[in-house]
Amino acid sequence: MRDVLEELDERRSEARLGGGETRIAAQHERGKLTARERIEALLDEGSFEEFDMFVTHRGTDFGMADKRYYGDGVVTGWGTVNGRTVFVFAKDFTVFGGSLSEAHAEKIQKVQDMALRNRAPIIGLYDAGGARIQEGVAALGGYAEVFQRNVLASGVIPQISVIMGPCAGGDVYSPAMTDFIFMVRDTSYMFVTGPDVVKTVTNETVTSEELGGARVHTTKSSIADGAYDNDLEALLQMRRLIDLLPQSNTGALPEIECFQSVKQDDPSLDTLVPKNANTPYDARELIEKTADEGDFFEIQAAFAQNIVVGLGRMEGRTVGFVANQPMVLAGVLDSDASRKAARFVRFCDCFSIPIVTFVDVPGFLPGTAQEQGGLIKHGAKLLFAYGEATVPKVTVITRKAFGGAYDVMASKHLRGDINYAWPTAQIAVMGAKGAVEIIFRKDVGDADRIAEHTKMYEDRFLSPFVAAERGYIDEVIMPRSTRRRVARGLRMLRGKELENPWKKHDNIPL
Ligand code: HXC
Q: Minimal CB count within 10 Å: which of 44, 75, 498, 503?
């Protein structure tokens, strides 16, 4: 019996070495952890249960018959994050560069199936060179099986991808279909085709970093939702994110103890909005002063910074925050901001996370670049997302809510449940200057008359009261009471029931 047990131990030790000590050392030299070290950092200590440790590939071409490593380049299984079950797979770069064979793909499919069946989040850690070149078409089939499972799990269980090394070719599309992608700065990159192919096809000379590094994907392409300085930080932040997420679309919202009373008003909010309507203030400050303990997990912080989105908690329960950011482009809605917020709103709605929206928006961004770039379609995405969302929606207009952007930003008319305004709110078709120049065109040039008309317009329309008279605003609230009012509203809305008409799926303008 002892021999049998020893053999198991030996096999396990061999499997845990992946591609061997030299390759592990090379991984460390690049500042990267190994697949198993990453899983250890992500999960609660000692909670990892590994599956398929002894799987090897079945390839025989190109001398592969005698090149087999236990695990075949991916470590899979499940464990817990602060006690809650999550499934995980981590590409092992030390084995054939983490490349995907048929057997490797089957290991991933198994945990995808288990995560979906057991309604628990799944996290993929990427560090891989794409399809196993020696296997050819079997690898392609394997990828498509993984992709199909991503699609079916979308909106049912949270799916998170962390890119911690190369992620090229077939490896990019599975992350692209998950809810979030995070990257590690300097060591990770993501692209469909690498610099060599780019050079051959387009004659462009480009580095991996320029083509698909964390900076590109967090600031330009918006493929990535955030980036961290190293593996450990990324994995610790993933633990923080998982804590905020429900297990599935039918799972309860996670609830933790809240240490900050919602009854305490914050007088500093009374002076957050500057007297001059064109002077910016930081929407993040408003979110942090509303969320429990100022804890805010921002998504896509470096992209379309004119809108801020992310997760926090109110009275211990997860809430999605969306806020126009007056510090960037005066908080205007453009195509990028609309797409960014639309995806976030839809994420929250999938997983029954209530949405709190702070509005200070001068309108949609005018210009040929925006119009030719599809502003109508992209703006419609956000409108659509808010309009279809059935989760509790609490909106607070702090200052400007002009034109179509007023409608879009979780207005009463898009089934906003509670719509508050601060006394500084200005709800109107447009700002005073633009309005007066159109209505009183014949007086343009007569400064006194224009000033008079402007004053009249401002007095009549640039306040929350015209909208409040119509019931578009449920109440004008003191800024200092925002946290309390929003929290009470969300508490009341815990039992909300609202269903859209049956449909196969909608046809959101993509
Ligand atoms: C088999 C691979 C591999 C692959 C890497 N390796 N990629 N083996 N299939 N796709 C192996 C290498 O041979 C090497 O083995 C080890 O992994 C480490 O690779 P290095 O090249 O030494 O590492 P590095 O210099 O860091 O470069 C990493 C890399 C590079 C950028 C990922 O390996 C690379 O370009 N790989 C090929 C990428 C690619 O073209 N993949 C196919 C994409 S097509 P040894 O034994 O020497 O340690 C695709 C289509 C699917 O994915 C589409 C589905 C939709």
A: 503
Cross-strand partners of 317: 255, 314
Q: For the domain 2-244, what is the CATH superfamily, name and number?
A: 2-enoyl-CoA Hydratase; Chain A, domain 1 (3.90.226.10)
- In this structure, which topology does domain 267-425+463-494 adopt according to CATH? 2-enoyl-CoA Hydratase; Chain A, domain 1 (3.90.226)
Q: Which atom of ligand 1 has the smallest separation from the CA of 173?
A: 55
Is the pLDDT assigned to residue 233 strictly greater than 90? Answer: yes
Ligand 1 pocket, mutate which of 23, 66, 91, 99 (most atoms under 8 A from CB): 99
Note the pLDDT of residue 136.
Answer: 84
Question: Which atom from ligand 1 is nearest to the alpha carbon of 169?
Answer: 52
This prediction has a pTM of: 0.96
Task: Find the mean pLDDT for residues 436-456.
Answer: 90
Range(s) of the chain covered by CATH 3.90.226.10? 2-244, 267-425+463-494
Q: What is the Å distance from ligand 1's center to 133 Cα?
A: 8
Q: Is 258 in the pocket of ligand 1 (CB under 6 A)?
A: no
CB contact set of 390 (below 8 Å; sequence gap of 6+): 349, 415, 496, 498, 499, 500
Torsion angle of the four alpha carbons 447, 449, 452, 456, in this order, in degrees rounded to the nearest 10: -120
How would residue 277 be classed by pLDDT, with cut points 50, 70 and 90? confident
Residue of 77, 97, 142, 170 marked catalytic: 170
CB of 143 sitting under 6 A from ligand 1: yes
Does the annotation mark 404 as catalytic? yes
With 90 as the cut, is the pLDDT of residue 155 above it?
Answer: yes
Q: Please write the tens of the pLDDT for every residue from 339-379.
A: 999 999 999 999 999 999 999 999 999 999 999 999 999 99
Q: What are 283-338's pLDDT values in tens digits?
A: 999 999 999 999 999 999 999 999 999 999 999 999 999 999 999 999 999 999 99
* Torsion region of 352: left, alpha or beta (phi above 0 gives left; psi -120 to 50 gives alpha): left
Q: Which residue has the tokens 């269903």?
A: 499
**Which one, of 109, 390, 123, lies nearest residue 243 by Cα?**
123
195: Cβ below 6 Å to ligand 1? no
Residue 61: per-residue pLDDT: 85
Q: Is the CB of 130 under 6 A from ligand 1?
A: yes
Q: What whole-number distance in Å separates Cα of residue 91 and Cα of residue 89?
A: 7
